[in-house]
Amino acid sequence: MSTTQDRREAERQSAHEPEADTEAEIRCLTGPGEACELARAVDWASTAIGPVAGWSQSLRSTASLVLHNHSPMLLWWGPQFVQIYNDAYRPVLGEKHPRAMGQRFRDCWSEVFHILGPMAERPFRGGPASVSDDVAVLLERKVPREESHFRLAYSPVPDDTVESGIGGVLATVTEITEQIYADRQLRTLRDLGARGSADAQTVDHACISAAAVLKDNPWDVPFALIYLFDDGAAHARRIASAGLDPALLERLAPATLDLAGAPAETPWRLHDIARARRIEFMAELPHAPESLPRSPWDETVRSALVLPLASPEQPDAYGALICGVSPHRVLDAGYQAFFELASSQVVTSLRDARALEAEHRRAEALAEIDRAKTAFFSNVSHEFRTPLTLMLGPVAELAVDPEFPPHARAKLNLAHRNALRLLRLVNTLLDFSRIEAGRVQASYEPTDLAALTRELASMFRSAIEGGGLTYEVDCETLREPVYIDREMWERIVLNLLSNAFKYTLQGTIAVRLSVQDARPVFEVSDTGAGIPEVEQPRIFHRFHRVEGIAGRSQEGTGIGLALVQELVRLHAGEITVRSQPGHGTTFRVSLPFGTAHLPADRLKAPGHATPAAIGAEAFVQEAMRWLPDDAGSQPPQVLSTEIVPDVPPVGLSIAAPVSLRPRVLVADDNADMRAYIRNLLAAKFEVEIVGDGRAALEAATRERPDLIVSDIMMPGLDGLGVLRALRGDKRLRDVPVILLSARAGEEARVEGLGTGADDYLVKPFSARELVSRIDALIELTALRRKSGERFRALIGASSDAVYSMNADWTEMRFLQGRNFIADTNDASSSWLERYIPEEDRARVSDYVQHAIDHQTRFECEHRIRRLDGSQGWAMSRAIPVKDEHGTVVEWFGMAVDMTERKRIETVLRDNTAWLAALKDAFQAAVNNEPLTVSLDILTHAAAGQMQGQARCAFHIADAKQAGLRHVAGMLEHGTHALETVPIDAGSVDWGRAACMRQAVITPDVNTEPRWKDWLWLARQYDYRACWSFPVETVAGKVVGTFTIFRAQPGQPGARDRELAMRFTQAAAIIVSRQQEAEERAHGVEALRHADRQKDEFLAMLAHELRNPLAPIANAGELLSRMVTGHDGAKAAADMIKRQTTQLTRLVDDLLDISRITQGRITLQHGPVDLAGVVTQAIEMVEPKLREKRHTLTVETTTRDTPLFVEGDIARLVQCVGNLLTNAVKYTDPGGAIHVWTRPRGTHAVIGIADNGSGISAELMPHVFDLFVQSNRTLDRAQGGLGIGLAVVKRLVHMHHGEILVRSDGVGHGATFEIELPRIAMPAGAPIEPDTAGIRSRRVLVVDDNRDAADSLSMLLGVLGHTPEVAYGALEAIERAQTFLPEVALLDIGLPGMNGYELAGKLREIPHLEGVRLVAVTGYGQPEDYQRTREAGFDEHLVKPIDHDALQRSLG
């Protein structure tokens, strides 16, 4: 029995059991609490759910559950969502309680219905239950539009008394507003603390960081301002803001505020804040509403809280924090506490920032002192270098002077040795000061570390062994080079060896290099005095010296080991010390392999270098000085302390003739240095000396030198300034320059060379090295000048065409064309007109003038007249040739033939452009855009490829190919006189080309007689040549023409014809596609029209078939009920009912297959027990089974293990019924039919097997096709349309299932199986339908078919009802006013006034407001059901009426 009949039965029972209703009412609303009391007081009869007496059992049970529950719960019932809630839900309602009890959801929660309404509708309409962890809404509670947050769960409440099966929605509500507030505020406070500590570099940074955090929480802090006070709180400065539009910021919060005035005149009450340090609440901001900020929910923020930023330990406030108060929250104690905590976090950040600023100031002061000290060391060291140069140089000269007295040579050695020691100390100080200042720039190169270390260690062998020590050197060859700065490594090794020798008086010194833990490790060990343990942590501190240690000397600066540590760190290495007093010390240096740890810009290729002789010698000479006097000269391997000659004695130098000497200019502000260098160079060079940079420039300008030697540090214009001036002078820019400087180190050398110096020497320098470098640079400069001239000549000689121009290009001196262009053997002033086409002459002249003005290379790509007279392309280049004074005397150039390259470039460019246009045109066609779009793209592309020398147009042929219509191209601008031309031999060229199906070429329309009637058109569009080409499809059909118009007369070239061929081919494809698409569209529309006609025909056919079937069915039912004792009459009545049922099923199948194929069937899904499906299907065919005496066996699952699927039970019964009908039809009388249900994995299966006629192998693949039937025989002419199995298959697929068929052939029966996805058994037992006990009703029957009306009236009478018949609408209205029916069965297709209109009229009759209107019609499409519902009908029955459905409708 249907749910509708259940509902009617429940209504009937409720009408007869008032006592039970009263008890139920008392039970469901009785209980303690205000909500129960309020529910009992509500007049439920005035609500949409009616009085409690009429409530369904489901509503009563759920209402009782809600009212007696301790969790916040809310019940919405019925389509109007009438509310019932409990006491726990009252806080959610706020002031809406108590009027909310019994209110409609929409009325109670109007402000949030647009959010919550759809969420409730979803489960009410059959969707799944919904759960939302956080729903944010604005409610009218404590404040207007109060921000609220809830955790919601909406579940459908089943109710069998309503047609949908769902009576309402149960809402479980948990308010989480305070939790959301707390989480949000804690996150803000946490971020204020975390980011404030991290970003508080300054107080301004701390304020900006705090504002950024507050900006992330606009819900609690819609806007924020931070002001800081100056000392004395006389002024306030705005530091940061959040949530304010920049356009409004200055208006709301000025950047600076004067706090010295009257308190009332100070915005934001900052005067009071600065003095009283109390919190101020501004309930209404004194600003225009349009200038105030807005909340995230677009509400104006009208109030703010102003909080002092003050620390308890500080007498004055730092400033003020101004926070907007959310208009969606109550400013309660918790909300204000949040603001106070936020201001505390800001104060903490400000306090930390101030402390950090103070610390930075202290650190900067210390750093400044340290920098001044380092600069002092650097300056002192620089001042030492120049006198050292003047000491070491003359000492070296005296050492080689044969007249120098031998007895004074020991004192000379003493002076030389101490000068070297002083130089080593100076270098150490300079190195350390550069490292401290961060100015060291190392150069790392791959080095054989073992070989270099062995070489450095060998320099100390003489001194160590001369001191009576054992010296061990064990340097293991490494597997790969190590990237080091060789000069720095030298300092590391020599310092550590010098230290070991100094503090080792006996025993052994060992040097080792090995690989440990995949890193090269260098160790220097000794058996000397050792280092006390307390001193070891400070051994690498600068200026630290360990006192009281026995050694060869107590001299030292205390920076040697500190320097070593810094040099090791520059290599990303590590140095450690291990020492035991009295047993010795080991220094260990560890470096990494590879380059990943080094700056990429400081790496360089491997080179050949040796340790600096002066640097190494200084260390060894100092070590030798520590030996006893007798030990220093005894051992045979001790290093000689004799002075090595630096240059040959001046008197022995071979002087060059004065006229051949190179001229060297020397600039230095130190007179002794000038004299020293002049004496050093006078034998080989002509030397001029000057005392400063300006004098050097004047001397060089006056007479060009071959080389300049300049000191860097000079008064006025320094050496770098001289260098820049030289490089900016065209006449002097190539003069080589050597810079001399006391500034050592890579960074100083890079700076000098980067400015343009050719070489850089550090004082003190080697005299021999200076002379050698001067020689090399002078020779190199001469070679460079000569090679440059040769190089330019070589380039000129290797050109395709070579030419020479005079200085101003007015005359071409010669040109060798090399079979490319004509030669010019004599000077010519008309070269421009002879070789350059007119269109390029101006551009070439501009390029020439630019080259002359700037004396730079001429380079230009231009057109040129070739040797054969044709026009080609050339790339011309020319360079200026200058004399010794830098004046351009002529130009040498070349011209390369670019003609073929330009042709290829043009072809590639045209092809690329054409392919792009073709792609766009085809894409437009694929997108079904108008044909003109694609053809416009092609015509514009074609015109573009002609480079503006021609225009194009396209004409399309009409359907009859009688005329051409312009659709794209040139004619779209101007006259439309020739929009259409005829296709014939006498037409204009494009009409003629379409007629003749070949190109029509008119070189000159002025001379073509055929054009005499069309010359006006040619003159209007300014063209002389017209070339028309037909556009022909592959099928040979001319669909249009493509025409090219040229302003100049002429024939089309190969490129023009290729372009036309491309266009016509592409256009033919596009036009053909469009025409095919139009034909398909017409065909589709025709199919749609035919389909609509078929649907209309089927609907009308069903109506016309059902109308006569209705009285037949009624008559059959009457006969079966009235004739009880006559077997023949009973058989006849059964036969009528069977045949009527068969006809009805055929009509339904016919309509179903139509609706299914169009996707218009909607399944009513629900859990379905397959046993029930089988039972109902068997009931459908039971009469035929008896008639043919078949044996039916049924095997289904038991009640304990039922099989459930998700589906539409009516459609599944239809599927099984169709299969059973086929089995009965195609099985001989007395046959066997077996039906079963069983599980199969995750699916459930319904099977039907018979031993009937079977299915042939040929028919098997088509058994589910439409209108397919097996071959009929005379004894099996059972009728049928051949659509039943097709309907079954489609319905099964709509249930996501499969249908299978097996048969061993004709005569062997067939087996069908329906396989559907299985679901778990639903909770609750199904209620069996019951049609018994329906009370008598007054029923008005209205139908213009008298047989149908009378037979239905008779049947109603037999069923115990009181019928009244009317055969028209007006008669029905008249009878209804006196008969007062309870139910009206109305035909829809009534003449005059149809059933829809009649229903409206009946509803208007007094005393008939509650009449039940039932549509009885032959129309059964879904849209028919929808229309009857909209017209006010309560139910829709399709003729012939199912009598059980009729009973339920009357119940």
UniProtKB/TrEMBL annotation:
One of its GO terms (cellular component) is plasma membrane. It catalyses: ATP + protein L-histidine = ADP + protein N-phospho-L-histidine. Residues 858-910 form the PAC domain. CDD domains: HATPase, HATPase_EvgS-ArcB-TorS-like, HisKA, PAS, REC_2_DhkD-like, REC_OmpR. Residues 663-778, 1338-1451 form the Response regulatory domain. The modification 4-aspartylphosphate is found at D711, D1387. Residues 1-23 are annotated as: Disordered. It comes from the Bacteria. It is found in: Cell inner membrane. SMART domains: GAF (SM00065), HATPase_c (SM00387), HisKA (SM00388), PAC (SM00086), REC (SM00448). SUPFAM superfamilies: ATPase domain of HSP90 chaperone/DNA topoisomerase II/histidine kinase, CheY-like, GAF domain-like, Homodimeric domain of signal transducing histidine kinase, PYP-like sensor domain (PAS domain). Keywords: ATP-binding, Kinase, Nucleotide-binding, Phosphoprotein, Transferase, Two-component regulatory system. InterPro entries: CheY-like_superfamily, GAF, GAF-like_dom_sf, HATPase_C_sf, HATPase_dom, His_kinase_dom, HisK_dim/P_dom, HisK_dim/P_sf. It is an enzyme of class 2 (transferase). Pfam families: GAF_2 (PF13185), HATPase_c (PF02518), HisKA (PF00512), PAS_3 (PF08447), Response_reg (PF00072). GO terms for molecular function: ATP binding; phosphorelay sensor kinase activity. Transmembrane segments: none annotated. Its main location: membrane. Its EC number is 2.7.13.3. NCBIfam families: sensory_box. This is histidine kinase. The lineage of its organism: Bacteria, Pseudomonadati, Pseudomonadota, Betaproteobacteria, Burkholderiales.
